Amino acid sequence: MAVDTLKRLRNMVIYSVFVRNYGKNGTFSDVEKDLERIKGLGVDIICFLPVYPVGETNRKGTLGSPYSIRNHRGINPEYGSPDDFRRLIDKIHKLDMRVMIDIVFCHTSPDSDLLKKHPEFFYRKPDGKLGSRVGDARDIIDLDYSSKELWKEQIDTMKYWISFGADGFRCDTASLIPIKFWKEAREEIRKVKPEVVWLAENIEPDSITEFRKRGFNAGSDSELFNVFDMCCDYDVHRYLLGYLEGTNSLKEYITRAAQQEYIFPENYVKLRFLENQDRPRAAGVIRNRDKLKTWTAYLFFQKGAVLIYNGQEAMEDHTQSLYEHDKIVWEETDEEFTKLFKSLSALKKQPIMAEGNYSIGVYDDMDIIVITYDMDGEKLMGIFNVGLEKGEIKLPIADGNYDNLAVGGATAVEDGTLILTDNPIIIKL
After folding, report:
1. What is the mean pLDDT of residues 170-174?
2. Is the Cβ–Cβ distance between 69 and 109 less than 8 Å?
3. In this structure, is the dihedral angle defined by the CA atoms of residues 62, 65, 70 and 74, taken in order, positive or negative?
4. What residue segments make up the domains of the chain, in order of their start?
5. Beta bridge partners of 16
6. Are 211 and 132 a contacting pair, CB within 8 Å?
7. What's the pTM value of the predicted model, to 2 decimals?
8. How far apart are CA 371 and CA 361, in angstroms?
9. Which of 62-66, 126-130, 305-309, 328-332 is the least confident region?
10. DSSP helix/strand/coil, 220
11. How far apart are the first and last CA of the chain?
């Protein structure tokens, strides 16, 4: 994508849907009925976790993982029919949102259609048996990208989903597939549909070094940014969780987040998240309403696109199983919390959030994050009291009463001093 288009991705709010645990029945119809509400949150893109038929061999749990895929061009019948999915995509488009499909090209289920047709496409362990390069992965077998015929097969699969109505791809464990494949795939897809959004699920730094030690391909974020529009935030997310769980300081996390500004290309886009299908629910880890509000505001105010994992806006604190019917509890949706999401999404759409000069740091070794954006004489500042510190702080800003763009009301600054509250503060200077 062009540089300006890439920057605009920083204004995007992406809503992640796991159909199985959505609504009453876990079907495409349940999601379709909820689209107006999702749109109302300020969502731009709906990203579907895998919608494909699930393998049966070595299945985990009762229903199996959506990432153990039997047919990459099929639809899981428990969700509905292909026509049901087409109708859902059509309605998403009519509401002026885009659709992102989770593409899982690192592996298949052990009983996949692809294995039956092309056993030569698969990775073999030293003993010659099929298997996976990772640990407890009995329900998947890895693919081997030394086969250029496999490249063609996978690119044709992406073209199929483009014809189905997809506007973008979330590429699962993209780090473990050769960058040259992704480059060729993108060039081929561009011929069919030029403006496709490409999101890479990267892997954590320790995993990159471990895979490389074992002689396997493992691309870094910097390599992925040569092809992809966005990467997930896994390079620093572990330190966010570490702070919340008490294993590292806030300063250690924020220092690493700030390093992204000079490690990655100038136009880099990170997908920021507090939770997803592979990480615990933020409400389950934080367990404090005021802190959860503050972390949510911080999430939206970071530079990059934002991921809302279905149920996050309802303060769901239970991490749903990937292998069973384990429905999200929507009855506890809180109007104040929903209003917060809406106001933050509106703020996210402002040009300064995509193009402004960005800085992030910790205030005076306190558990307070300060983020600023400035562009063409305009400045936004966010003060996120994630530790619920008491007292006051000194800021290099003019005295006055400022509208709090995060939660409403006014924030007073007198003699350069701001009184700390339990609410997130975002002000325009």
Report:
1. 97
2. yes
3. positive
4. 3-355, 369-428
5. 47, 309
6. no
7. 0.96
8. 7
9. 328-332
10. coil
11. 32
Q: How many CB atoms lie within 10 A of CB 190?
A: 12
Tell me what pLDDT residue 92 has.
Answer: 98
CA-based nearest residue to 78, from 328, 331, 323, 279 = 323
Q: Checking phi first, is residue 127 left (phi over 0); if not, alpha (psi -120 to 50) or beta?
A: alpha
Q: Percentage of the chain surpassing pLDDT 70?
A: 98
If you count them, how many residues does the chain have?
429
DSSP line for 47-108: EEPP-SPBP-TT--TTT--TTSBS-TT---TTT--HHHHHHHHHHHHHTT-EEEEEE--SEE
Token couple for 263: 């490690």
Alpha carbon 171 to chain centroid, angstroms: 11
Q: Which three-class secondary structure state does DSSP give residue 383?
A: strand
Pairwise CA distance, residues 320 & 281, whole Å: 9
CATH number of 3-355: 3.20.20.80
CATH topology of domain 369-428: Immunoglobulin-like (2.60.40)
What letter does residue 13 receive in the DSSP assignment? E
Strands, E assignment, 137-176: 141-142, 168-171
Neighbours of 305 (CB within 10 A): 26
3-state secondary structure 313-367: HHCCCCCCCCCCCCCCCCCCCCHHHHHHHHHHHHHHCCHHHHHCEEEEEECCCCC
Short-list 46, 47, 45, 65, CA closest to 55: 65
Q: Where are the beta strands (DSSP E) in 104-215?
A: 107-108, 141-142, 168-171, 197-200
How much is the CA Rg of the chain, to the nearest whole Å? 22
